[in-house]
Structure to design on (226 residues):
């Protein structure tokens, strides 16, 4: 079966760094997405990885290892507005997104 | 970036009535749109894939006669919840796939919160 695993909840301090992990097992792989979702709102796109390695975009970076079925989202210089759920999604062989349950990130002052 | 709109943003209806939700891609053509449902504190659940000019593909466990999907044009897909019941109360989100992007990115609408009383 297809499976995406990520922690349910994480807590971090404002100004710090946090890494959210995602492991996956899917039928085919056409890339991994990270989305941010604030409560009551639709997801917004953060990053896309299809090749191994690190993609950096401002305070956010995303890493992928296809051989390990593993990705992480790294958030630096955390701000209170970063409090949200972070969803990991993998595009399978049919380019259909398989969604993780999301990681709720709580930022404390 | 590409914009997807949904209408209405929220709706309250009585049990037994039907509700139609519209999803529009405003600045790109979307041959494929997706309908998701999200219950509180849960992840997105794909309900169906809507293909322009053909019948929608429903996920297992989603009643196609209850959740009617029409994708009549390259910029509009509609989801009609027929004979709504309180358990249908949820956050419904559509997304549209833009084939012009490097990785067929999906752009999400803002969502529609349905409350059935």
């Amino acid at each position: 079966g297809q499976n995406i695993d990520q922690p349910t909840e994480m807590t971090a301090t404002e100004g710090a760094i946090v890494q959210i992990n995602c492991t996956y097992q899917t039928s085919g792989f056409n890339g991994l997405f990270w989305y941010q979702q604030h409560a009551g709102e639709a997801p917004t796109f953060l990053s896309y990885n299809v090749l191994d390695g690190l993609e950096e975009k401002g305070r956010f970076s995303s890493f992928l290892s296809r051989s390990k079925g593993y990705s992480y989202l790294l958030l630096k210089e955390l701000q209170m507005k970063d409090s949200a759920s972070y969803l990991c999604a993998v595009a399978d062989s049919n380019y259909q997104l398989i969604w993780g349950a999301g990681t709720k990130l709580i930022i404390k002052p | 970036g590409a914009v997807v709109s949904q209408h209405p943003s929220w709706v309250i209806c009585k049990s037994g009535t039907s509700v139609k939700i519209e999803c529009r891609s405003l600045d790109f053509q979307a041959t494929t749109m997706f309908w998701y449902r999200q219950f509180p504190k849960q992840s997105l659940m794909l309900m169906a894939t809507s293909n322009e000019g053909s019948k929608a593909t429903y996920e297992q466990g989603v009643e196609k006669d209850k959740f009617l999907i029409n994708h009549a044009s390259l910029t509009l897909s509609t989801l009609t919840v027929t004979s709504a019941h309180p358990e249908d109360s949820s956050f419904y989100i559509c997304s549209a796939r833009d084939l012009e992007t490097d990785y067929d990115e999906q752009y999400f609408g803002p969502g529609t919160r349905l409350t059935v009383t």
